[in-house]
Amino acid sequence: MKPIVPLLSLVVGLVNCAVAQSASEARFKPEWDSLRNYRCPEWFRDAKFGIYAHWGVFSATQGSAATDWYGRNMYKAGHPNNVEHLKRYGSLSRFGYKDYIPLFTGEKFNADEWVELYVEAGAKFAGPVGEHADGFSMWDSTVNPWNAAKMGPKRDIVGEMEKAVRKRGLKFLVSMHHQWLWGWYPTWDKNTDAGDPKFSSFYGPAYPATAQSRKRPGGGDENMYADPLPSAAWQQVWLAKVEEVVTKYSPDVLWFDNRMQLLSEGVRKKMAADFYNHALARGQEPVLNFKRPDMELGTGTIDLERSRMPDIYPEPWLTDTSISRSSWAYATDLEYYSTDRLVDDLVDIVSKNGCMLLNVAPAPDGTIPEPQKERLRGIGAWLRLNGEAIYGSRPWLIYGEGPTQTLVGHLADVKFNGFTSADIRFTTNHGFLYAIALGWPEHGKTITIDALSTAKYSDEITAISLLGHSGPLTWRRTVDGLVIDLPDEKPCANAYTFKITRNPLL
Predict the structure, then answer these.
(1) When comparing pLDDT for 303 and 224, which is higher?
(2) Around Cβ 147, how many Cβ atoms within 10 Å?
(3) Which residues, at least 6 apart from 372, have a Cβ–Cβ distance to it below 8 Å?
(4) Which of 45, 245, 284, 500 is the most buried (most CB within 10 A)?
(5) What topology does CATH give the domain 400-503?
(6) Are strands 496-503 and 432-437 parallel, antiparallel or unpaired?
(7) pTM for the structure as a whole
């Protein structure tokens, strides 16, 4: 394998030429003031639901407790991934992460089948992980010789997904996580293959252990810090990978994992400006998703990982979450969320002006396991019945009511146990108010909506229907709430939606 560094100047020059525009042609400049002119497009606000897939070399590690972090954890003495790896393959100097690449076969991968399932699930935007933290690119890359077109599946996964997604009329997303590559592998450890200089084009240059993570006296997530910070040459490779994806595949949505804060502001600003200008030149309405504090507010759309806003946020935002509580990637012991939980999460997020990006975890052969298909089809069935309360909707005066308080903060949803039948969320669309109850009462035949009591809401309510139920409903308003008599049978398996017609006093 030839090292990448000697080719760097030529590659970066070619990529920059492909995306560069003159000052008179460029709408955005690589400056925060210019990038703050960004406005999230209406299509994204309307879409509400997208799907992507953590699928890569890490999927081929399989085993128990396998995750997208396997490539890092397998080198940590005593970690379950390390113990399992040593038991199966022996010394890390003989069999390292690079040796999983031939096991990542993808022989049954079919982009059209994936996207057909995503459409059935009701997704409006979708795509692949372009490059995860492990440094393996999922596209046909001239920047990175370690890529899926030349190794493993020997197919351009990003390219095939782009064609399939656009064919079905969805917006195309690519997620990028490769800023994590700095310090991901123990290149300081000469007892592993990661410390062998002949593999530095994959594992990275030799650096001290503090480049992987650095604890700070003031606290915080140690993985967000590094010493030393990435070199200028390494950052240019990072940028060249992004710009290659942008120029070759023109994603509508470019999504970034956290830890971009390790990169210079200049690199981050250039990445955003080049992406926006390329998309706009093609007539696209681009979306750039990032986590704070990686970009300045107003320069893109905020993403929260396995978390959500506690209340209505004035700007559109995104939650990325997974179909599994235990992992983003394929494993033999995945712990799945129920369809009910996933639907409730979607409703809660939408009620607060957000969208949800749901991850699936395909097997190394490229198939999506049946339990994941079942959940996606369940979400789609619910959206076909209740979609008017979701797609194109906007928040109401309040997001909802009920006893359950959602947890906030990075990865908070992993600890969240879900909603109750007493939790209700609100959306509006085409003049209608939608009250979405997140569970059918276990006892009793009525539901009471406190926010619509005569003591709290003065507009007249003239009609109420239950989506999926053909018969009339009886209801009444009191000072204690809007009381609705429920039919004998639920209209669907998950949350159920009341469509409320109002007559404003003025």
Answers:
(1) 303
(2) 23
(3) 323, 336, 360, 361
(4) 245
(5) Immunoglobulin-like (2.60.40)
(6) antiparallel
(7) 0.93
